[in-house]
Design a protein that fits this description.
The chain has 178 residues and is of the alpha/beta class. Helices cover 35% and strands 22% of the residues.
């Protein structure tokens, strides 16, 4: 049994990327894994100041919700990032969180497999290149981790429009097959 942490970056109600996250979670739970889902909606996450104190202390000097989320990331076996694609990149709130997880860089972290779930209005495969590069850049900083899979629901503009998208089945299967 693996400890799975799903971080959802969409702030929209009936979000398509959150629907992908729910499908992944359902697959992982069906396979017997422990799943925790955290939405960044309503979370207070400040920008990294670049002070690098965290590299010495293992803890960020900013007291907000990013601290607790980073601790959960550190102890999870599997991390899933779910994000809408905004201007061909990840949502800003996810990028801010990734920056704030800098204390993990010099720590003993558990995670190995990282998954990325994304939804976008554009359905061209190229629409995923920028967001995937952003996630891959974070993953590359952790030598024991790898980007294990990606599901992309392109062509989903309106809230809830991913409901019949094939990426839901793909996300479910990725969760089930951990």
């Amino acid at each position: 049994m693996k400890n799975v942490l799903i971080l959802s970056a969409s702030l929209r109600q009936r979000s398509n990327s959150e629907r992908l996250a729910a499908a992944f979670a359902a697959g992982a739970r069906e396979a017997g894994h422990s799943v925790e889902e955290i939405s960044l909606k309503g979370k207070r996450i400040a920008f990294c100041t670049g002070c690098l104190t965290c590299q010495k202390t293992g803890r960020c000097v900013i007291a907000d919700d990013a601290r607790a989320i980073a601790e959960k990331v550190k102890t999870a076996d599997v991390i899933v990032f779910a994000s809408p694609v905004y201007y061909y990149s990840i949502a800003g709130q996810l990028k801010t969180l990734l920056d704030r997880m800098n204390p993990l860089f010099s720590s003993e972290y558990n995670f190995r497999d990282i998954y990325f779930l994304a939804s976008a209005a554009d359905d061209a495969p190229e629409a995923l290149e920028g967001p995937q590069k952003a996630i891959q850049g974070w993953v590359d900083c952790f030598e024991k981790a790898r980007l294990a899979g990606t599901a992309f629901a392109g062509g989903c503009t309106a809230p809830g429009s991913a409901e019949d998208h094939p990426a839901l089945a793909q996300a479910f299967a990725m969760g089930r097959d951990l």
